[in-house]
Design brief:
- The complex is a heterodimer of chains A (about 240) and B (about 300).
- Chain A has about 240 residues and is of the alpha/beta class.
- Chain A has 2 domains: about 10-90 and about 165-240, 3-Layer(aba) Sandwich (Rossmann fold); about 100-160, no CATH class.
- Chain A is built from 9 helices and 10 strands.
- Chain A has a 6-stranded mixed β-sheet, sandwiched between helices. In chain A, strands 2-1-4-5 form a 4-stranded antiparallel β-sheet.
- In chain A, helix 7 (about 175-190) links the parallel strand 7 and strand 8 (about 195-200).
- Chain B is an all-alpha fold.
- Chain B has one domain (about 5-295): ABC transporter involved in vitamin B12 uptake, BtuC (Orthogonal Bundle).
- Chain B contains 12 helices and 2 strands, in the order ααααββαααααααα.
- Chain B has helices at about 5-35, 40-60, 65-90, 95-120, 145-165, 170-180, 180-185, 190-210, 225-235, 240-265, 270-280, 290-295; strands spanning about 135, 140.
- Chain B has a two-stranded antiparallel ribbon.
- In chain B, helix 9 (about 225-235) crosses helix 10 (about 240-265) and helix 9 (about 225-235) runs parallel beside helix 11.
- The radius of gyration of chain B is 19 Å and the shape is globular.
- Classes of the chains: A alpha/beta (about 240), B mainly alpha (about 300).
- Chains A and B meet through helix 2, helix 3 and helix 6 of A and helix 6 and helix 7 of B.
Chain lengths: ~240, ~300
């Protein structure tokens, strides 16, 4: 499902060094560094307004940013958003970012814009993962339920054959069961070798999936932990595990 | 009051010119959907279509088919130059949409002056594609060129529909119109799509200019009325909806023709602007957004 060409041994899949971003005079993201290893699932936790979405937008160049970003050791800081997608960095935006006046099929076809020859095969893979989308294939994306829309958003991202899949609040607005299903699917995708960077408000769910956690507050990363370590940080555990 | 023949004749004439407005209106929609920009130089492509084709036919003696085949890409290139030289640099420098829209208006004036200086202010025309006519049905006369306008217009609309629903680039343009950020995140080069949109839009204007010139004339300054009426057609149809713009153009053309025959030529623009006002009052998002949008607007 993801494009092959793993990083050289020891080189992170993605490494951000001192990435910062501002909206006008307001620095929403202070110089921030993070890394994701090949096939790793990393989650970013933090309260509302902490800068999680700005960090994701800065990494994908939707928001202008400073600092450097390396992908498999190669500097990709100057690349525009669509060129990052060509490298295999695909983001599912907060709010899903679907094309509401297009059908499920058309959304998926557009998802495969970079790989038109593989569209049918890739669509089959997506339908195997989300059978509900096959039933709704000719329905307009805007008329789907919230859970189905999120399935479509992830399915569409998979059409682009991501090597690194970034998701911003995929469970936002979903019923607990739908959120659980979506996050389980992410676990399955991660098992298939896709690196995942996940911003998620439902911290207990996210922590069940993630191997590592960054905690962000007031626009900067304040902690980096292995998931199992969070229990020994009583303040974080109290805040995020209950 | 016009009699039945005058009424029918007006409807026929209005359909012809309305289809031209519709094509110009679709041109507005194509650029607006890809970029959010209202290209006020849209009418200038109609003028260029007629002028370039006339020059190729009359001054260079090129056969009609070849002249048309050359005119459309030449005008499409002018649209691409406008995007590359004016719109893209302004966007990269963070200019507001309002400033860019104003710049397209300046581009229209500049292009008009260039044409005035190089080709003069003499009105020009060329022969209808099929000599002879008009076809008489009862007392209603239908010029052969109207059939060309209707046929080419319908064919063009079909081609556009196929382009937007069946091709990779067409789908990508639609994706850009619905969510530009999401399109970028999937690898669609939005700036390239804008270039395509300007080329397509200019080509549509060129076809409209080539089709309409034999029924009237072209000159350096005919772009403005076509641009204004095409803009009104697009608004009537619900800005951004290609099918709506076409229907808006037909409605506008027919109403203008009826206003001319019923009230006099001076009421042509009054009719257009009155229709615009009524539509905006009753359907703020255009006729094809329906009554639902009226309720929402409240």
């Amino acid at each position: 499902m993801s494009a092959e060409s793993p990083s050289p041994r020891g080189v992170p899949l993605l490494e951000a060094r001192d990435v910062s971003a501002s909206y006008g005079h307001v620095q929403a993201l202070k110089p921030t560094s993070l890394h994701i290893a090949e096939g790793e699932l990393v989650t970013i936790l933090g309260p509302n307004g902490a800068g999680k979405t700005t960090l994701m937008r800065a990494l994908t160049r939707l928001t202008a940013s400073k600092g450097s970003v390396l992908f498999r050791g190669e500097d990709i800081s100057g690349l525009s958003t669509h060129k990052l997608a060509r490298r295999g960095i695909i983001m599912v935006q907060e709010g899903r970012g679907l094309f509401p006046q297009m059908s499920v099929r058309e959304n998926l076809i557009i998802g495969g814009y970079l790989h038109p020859a593989d569209t049918e095969e890739q669509m089959g893979t997506v339908f195997d993962l989300f059978p509900r989308l096959r039933e709704r294939v000719d329905q307009l994306a805007g008329s789907l339920s919230g859970g189905e829309q999120q399935m479509l958003a992830i399915g569409r991202a998979l059409m682009a054959k991501p090597q690194l899949l970034m998701l911003d609040e995929p469970s936002l607005g979903l019923a607990p069961r739908a959120a659980f299903e979506i996050l389980n699917t992410l676990r399955e995708l991660n098992r298939r070798g896709i690196g995942i960077l996940l911003v998620e408000q439902k911290a207990p769910l996210a922590l069940r999936l993630a191997q590592r956690v960054y905690v962000i507050s007031l626009g900067k990363i304040v902690a980096e932990l292995q998931t199992h370590e969070i229990k020994s940080h009583h303040d974080l555990a109290r805040y995020y595990l209950h | 009051m016009p009699n039945a023949v005058e009424f029918l004749q007006s409807v026929v004439n209005g359909i012809g010119v309305g289809l031209i407005y519709g094509l110009v209106g679709i041109g507005f929609c194509v650029i607006y959907n890809a970029s959010g920009i209202v290209n006020f130089a849209q009418g200038v492509f109609v003028m260029l279509g007629g002028m370039v084709c006339q020059v190729l036919l009359a001054q260079l003696g090129i056969p009609l088919v070849l002249a048309v085949a050359l005119t459309i890409p030449l005008v499409a290139i002018s649209g691409m130059i406008m995007e590359l030289a004016i719109v893209r640099p302004m966007m990269h420098r963070g200019a507001t949409l309002f400033a860019i829209i104003l710049a397209t208006l300046a581009a229209q004036i500049m292009i008009e002056r260039i044409v005035l200086l190089t080709l003069g202010d003499r009105p020009r025309t060329f022969s209808e594609f099929t000599p002879g006519g008009p076809l008489k049905i009862g007392d209603v006369a239908i010029g052969y060129q109207l059939f060309w306008i209707l046929g080419c217009g319908a064919f063009l609309v079909l081609l556009l529909w196929l382009f937007f629903t069946r091709t990779r680039t067409g789908r990508a343009l639609r994706a850009c119109s619905q969510n530009r950020e999401a399109a970028q995140l999937l690898g669609i080069p939005v700036s390239h799509m804008m270039l395509v949109a300007f080329a397509l839009s200019a080509a549509l204007g060129a076809v409209a200019g080539i089709l309409v010139t034999p029924t009237q004339y072209t000159a350096y300054n005919v772009g403005t009325p076509f641009g204004v009426n095409g803009f009104i057609a697009a608004i009537i149809g619900g800005f951004g909806r290609a099918g709506g713009a076409l229907a808006g153009g037909l409605l506008l053309g027919v109403l203008q023709a009826l206003a001319i025959v019923a009230l006099g030529a001076g009421f042509k623009n009054v009719a257009a602007l009155s229709v615009l006002l009524v539509v905006l009052l009753l359907f703020p998002n255009g006729l094809f957004a329906g009554f639902g949008s009226k309720a929402k607007a409240h």
